[in-house]
Design brief:
The complex is a heterodimer of chains A (274) and B (335). Chain A has 274 residues and is an all-alpha fold. Chain A is built from twelve helices and no strands. The relative contact order of chain B is 0.13. Classes of the chains: A mainly alpha (274), B alpha/beta (335).
């Protein structure tokens, strides 16, 4: 555990220096979700104004509630998409030769990919704080929190599954030579299938089925339940159970993928190919 | 426990490409028996595609051999790679293998964390390594502002961050200026003197000749020859040569040179120069310059030039890699 924390600190520093440290990146990390949010809000708003929407999607009838719904979705999405981006960075490490160096060290591979994902998330902690503060200030009367500690619960409900998701993505993309393509393939479904912009009940069954295996779906349910519906920990137990199950499955899949991927790399020498 | 890195019948065959663009499997390493003991710089030489980098990557656990065995201090590399990784490190040439936006010190700290070096030890070691490679002043500068030589020196420091017992150097001075390469050679020699086992591949054969006590020569993944650089040169038939220019040639002096060479079992090359001087060349494994000079001067020869040419490893490698044939240049000297 002590070694894992050391690796986490190392990865956090590396990612800060390599990817997140410049003012331009910080600016874009802040502005990009706001732009996404604005685009989504003004896309959904006309639909929400249509007759009969209050029966089909009651929340959408109130602009402020709709905005709160979309903000929580954007918060979850920003958390998870940063992990897809950090996984993608492994393709850069392959080209710079440092990926081989990581495999040269005795570090447990699962610890490495978890630390990589967690390191990326640490860079986003301030974003979570900004979003939460903005929600309280701008959408204060739509926020219903059972207890102030629910903010911590929400943070953990985002952090833990996101780390598991990040570990799984890292295990996939660190062995992929065409990571840019996989990045595109993974980014859009998260937008579409996980309830970020639309409630799950509005999605077709097949979309909900895909979304159900991505932990972002469960995390957003917890975020909205805790911040908008005033649910407590016990009310959210089914969601926690779902998230715990998916997270465990993802970590198991990451372990297997790492084992198979490294064995293949040792057989083919592909870690140095790009 | 057998100290050192030892391979027995080591083999590596890369699988052929599948699908539409099928390719045949590629044998990169074929039955190598190598020993890299502590406290010695061992060379691994071969022409391009000989299998040097593949061999080093197997030792570094980055590749898994398809046949044979490999042990580091008695530990099976295939069965216990994590234990082996604590004892070894790899440094390759070129500007890759460090994080460019991090400082030199941060790079070393990052890898120290991955190797689980204790905090107090790591802090001290980083300072020592920066000093060793002459980067103390630039330790807090981002690597992207380093010159190529500085980046490569940082790479050497990175390779020592886990205090490895064995260091695998794959073309470590590739593309470096001569003074920087010379400094790096000093560092490598010092590391071996401290008791580390070093395996070195390099296309700069002067470097190998200077540093290596023992050299393996491979071709197409197979073992060709081994020994000290001198032994390899002898095995390749690369003799020393002595060339003297005589300004008062005469038949008795020619006879002295011919008789001297005959006692060594060789035939001299005697060529008359344009200005009437005589050029005599004798090739032999031993240094015969002194006795030849004595014989000629005693016989009344006036010598204007003396040149003693040492054989070099490059000749030996080319000769042996070509299947033992004597190079054309040497042949001409002998004729």
């Amino acid at each position: 555990m002590r070694h894992a924390l050391k690796v986490l600190a190392a990865e956090a520093l590396k990612q800060h220096r390599m990817y997140f440290g410049s003012p331009m990146v910080l600016f874009s990390m802040f502005v990009w979700p706001i732009l996404q949010l604005a685009a989504t809000y003004y896309t959904v708003r006309p639909v929400a104004s249509s007759p009969g929407i209050a029966q089909r999607w009651p929340l959408a009838a109130d602009p402020q509630s709709l905005l709160a719904f979309l903000v929580t979705g954007a918060l979850g999405y920003a958390f998870f998409v940063s992990l897809v981006q950090s996984s993608w960075q492994f393709s850069i490490e392959r080209q710079s030769g440092t990926l081989e160096l990581l495999f040269l060290t005795p570090i447990n591979r699962l610890v490495l990919v978890i630390a990589n994902g967690a390191g990326a998330l640490l860079q986003n902690t301030w974003l979570f704080a900004c979003f939460s503060t903005a929600m309280l200030v701008v959408l204060g009367n739509t926020v219903h929190v059972a207890h102030p500690l629910m903010f911590l619960v929400v943070f953990l409900a985002l952090l833990v599954p996101a780390v598991a998701w990040g570990a799984f993505l890292n295990s996939l993309l660190m062995f992929a030579r065409d990571a840019a393509l996989m990045f595109t393939m993974l980014e859009e479904p998260m937008w579409l299938f996980c309830g970020v912009r639309l409630p799950l009940f509005a999605l077709p069954v097949w979309m909900r089925a895909i979304g159900s295996v991505v932990p972002l779906t469960g995390s957003i349910l917890v975020v909205r339940g805790a911040l908008l519906d005033g649910k407590g920990v016990f009310d959210l137990l089914p969601e926690f159970g779902l998230l715990a199950g998916i997270s465990a499955l993802l970590l198991g899949a990451a372990t297997l993928t790492l084992k198979l991927g490294e064995a293949r790399a040792q057989r083919t020498g592909q870690l140095s190919l790009f | 426990m057998d100290a050192g890195i030892r391979t027995a019948g080591l083999g590596m065959t890369f699988p052929g490409r599948r699908g539409l663009h099928r390719g045949a499997p590629k044998v990169a390493v074929d039955g190598l028996d190598l020993a890299i003991p502590p406290g010695r710089v061992t060379g691994l030489l071969g022409l391009n595609g000989a299998g040097k980098t593949t061999t080093i990557k197997i030792m570094a656990t980055l590749l898994r051999p398809t046949s044979g065995t490999i042990h580091v201090d008695g530990i099976d590399v295939v069965a216990k790679p994590r234990e082996v990784r604590r004892r070894i490190n790899l440094i390759a040439g070129g500007e890759r293998m460090v994080y460019m936006r991090m400082t030199g010190r941060e790079n070393l700290w990052y890898f120290g964390q991955l190797y689980d070096v204790p905090r107090t030890v790591l802090r001290k070691r980083i300072d020592e390594l920066l000093e060793l490679v002459g980067l103390t002043k630039d330790g807090d500068t981002a690597v992207e502002k380093y010159s190529r030589g500085m980046t490569q020196r940082l790479s050497i420091a990175r390779g020592l961050i886990n205090d490895p017992a064995y260091l695998l150097l794959d073309e470590p001075t590739l593309g470096l200026d001569a003074p920087i390469a010379r400094d790096l050679r000093k560092v490598v020699a010092r590391l071996a003197a401290e008791g580390r086992g070093v395996l070195l591949t390099s296309h700069y054969l002067d470097e190998v000749e200077e540093l290596c006590d023992h050299v393996y020569l491979i071709s197409d993944g197979k073992h060709l020859a081994q020994g000290s650089p001198e032994e390899l040169m002898a095995a390749a038939g690369c003799d020393r040569s002595v060339r003297v220019v005589i300004t008062n040639p005469s038949a008795p002096i020619r006879a002295i040179a011919t008789e001297f060479a005959a006692t060594l079992g060789v035939t001299p090359t005697i060529v008359a120069g344009e200005n009437g001087e005589l050029e005599i060349t004798i090739r032999h494994a031993e240094d015969v310059a002194g006795p030849l000079m004595s014989a000629l001067v005693t016989g009344g020869a006036a010598i204007s030039q003396l040149e003693a040419l040492q054989p070099n490893l490059e000749d030996a490698v080319l000769t042996l890699a070509a299947g033992g044939a004597v190079p054309a240049e040497a042949e001409a000297v002998r004729a």
